[in-house]
Design goal:
This protein is mainly alpha-helical. It contains five helices and two strands, in the order E-E-H-H-H-H-H. The protein is about 60% helix and about 5% strand. It has a two-stranded antiparallel sheet. The longest helix has 22 residues. It is globular.
């Protein structure tokens, strides 16, 4: 398939693995990522800069909280789409294999 100048035929959009249970944690993480992105739309550049400096992980001021919250910050729609696609493809199978709690700890 050829979309907007990109060849996406190498991206696996499905798997042949059967899920043993519903991946609720993966669904929740996808929803949270989407919600945070939509909540940041329409903000001024200064507000986005402040959010990124407050909640994004920086090497100058590392903390466990920003290490977790930075996983939900995205620069643009393509960044969000790529991360959600990978989370959907890998997360559903991985959560089914290792369990929801271990997967959530691995994600954070």
């Amino acid at each position: 398939m050829f979309v907007a100048g990109l060849d996406i035929s190498a991206i696996p959009f499905k798997t042949d693995r059967t899920l043993r249970r519903v991946p609720y944690v993966t669904y929740a993480l996808c929803f949270i990522n989407l919600f945070v992105y939509l909540a940041m739309l329409g903000r001024s550049n200064y507000a986005l800069y402040t959010i990124a400096n407050t909640w994004g992980f920086t090497i100058a001021h590392p903390s466990l909280l920003t290490l977790i919250t930075s996983a939900f910050l995205h620069n643009d729609l393509m960044h969000l789409a790529g991360n959600l696609l990978l989370l959907w493809l890998v997360g559903t199978v991985l959560e089914s294999g290792i369990g929801s709690l271990v997967f959530l700890l691995l994600y954070c």
